[in-house]
Design goal:
eight-stranded parallel barrel, alpha/beta, 12 helices, two-stranded antiparallel sheet
Length: 344
């Protein structure tokens, strides 16, 4: 499998990254089966594995740690912090207190003495970026973290973080992990140009748009995906016009894939990998069947004609449902507006 440079770090990673959110209580509960899927991905040439402390409350990290025994040195291992881990208000966020505590928990669960890429799972304007950068810099200098990145940061925060690192003598964020798919193209406006400007690696997530581009959502067959009561209605309720637009697009894209002689999954993943700013895209299989259906996309090259037809279905820079963009400023929440623009 092709490897690409991870920004300017000097590290090379496979253009498919194995996401492990579905290993554990959130997906496949059988640890042995999850480990078999991970080993198959590694055998197929994937050397980049992404997890997070919050995935199944640490269970995903434990499974990854088991799977990498004896193979740890061959893998670029990424995990994340920030999301609420439990009801304790201090068990979350980007504070030095939580980062220093949670990195030790992740290292223990992963069974390793270092994390290659430690990522801040979301941006929070209530946390001083220098507070976060100072803690992460100390972890790099202590050898517990090799590099650090962020996920779903708005453009202004990406710029602020680079300037804070420069002005305060901190190590800098070297990667961004945004959502990106044919249905969610908002990052083409500013995020992807910014990451290229700063020489950052990009490991995008959800190339199948949360399942909308898996082939399960088709108007002509009446398929509308699996029952998903736990999924946010704003993103999956077909009574909403934004999601009807996604269904229309998914149907048109499936027909385009048929015309091109490839699967919709191949079309979706190959589209993301085609962007020059994208280093690697995260695939998130739950089963071996899911993994096998996605591996082939690494070898698919889309023609300019196919790309033009994609643009005609979903124009560049457009996200059909803004709720899919992954981060909404807390200053836009109704409670913040009532307080005159201050977010808690």
């Amino acid at each position: 499998m092709e490897h690409r440079p991870l920004g300017r770090t000097g590290v090379s990673v496979s253009k498919l990254c194995l996401g492990t959110m579905m290993f554990g209580a959130w997906g496949t509960r059988d640890h042995d089966e999850s480990i078999r899927v991970i080993h198959r991905a590694l055998d197929a040439g994937i050397n980049f594995v992404d997890t997070a402390d919050v995935y199944s409350q640490g269970e995903s990290e434990i499974i990854v740690g088991k799977a990498l025994k004896g193979r740890r040195d061959d893998v670029v291992l990424a995990t994340k912090f920030f999301m609420p881990f439990d009801d304790d208000p201090n068990h979350r966020g980007g504070s030095r207190r939580w980062i220093m505590t949670e990195v030790e928990h992740s290292l223990r669960r992963l069974g390793t003495d270092h994390i290659d890429l430690y990522q801040m799972h979301r941006y929070d304007p209530a946390v001083d970026l220098d507070e976060t950068l100072g803690a992460l810099t100390d972890l790099v200098r202590a050898g517990k973290v090799r590099y650090f990145g962020h996920s779903t940061f708005p453009a202004s925060a990406i710029v602020d973080a680079q300037y804070v690192a420069r002005d305060r003598g901190r190590e800098r964020f070297v990667t961004e992990q945004p959502t990106y798919s044919i249905l969610t193209r908002n990052i083409e406006h500013e995020i992807l140009p910014l990451t290229r400007r700063y020489g950052m690696g990009v490991l995008s997530y959800s190339p199948l748009a949360g399942g909308w581009l898996s082939g399960r959502y088709r108007k002509d067959t009446g398929q509308t995906g699996p029952a998903a009561a736990a999924r946010p209605a704003v993103r999956f309720d077909l009574s909403l016009p934004e999601n009807q637009r996604k269904l229309d697009a998914a149907d048109a894209l499936a027909k385009l894939a048929d015309d091109a002689g490839i699967s919709l999954i191949d079309l979706a993943i190959a589209f993301v990998l085609r962007h020059p700013a994208v280093t690697s895209t995260i695939i998130g299989p739950r089963t071996m069947e899911h993994l096998e259906s996605q591996l082939a996309a690494a070898d698919v090259a889309l023609t300019d004609d196919v790309l033009d037809r994609i643009d005609a279905i979903v124009p560049p820079g457009v996200t059909l449902n803004p709720a899919d963009n992954g981060w909404v400023s807390p200053f836009l929440q109704p409670s913040a507006r009532r307080r005159g623009g201050t977010a808690a």
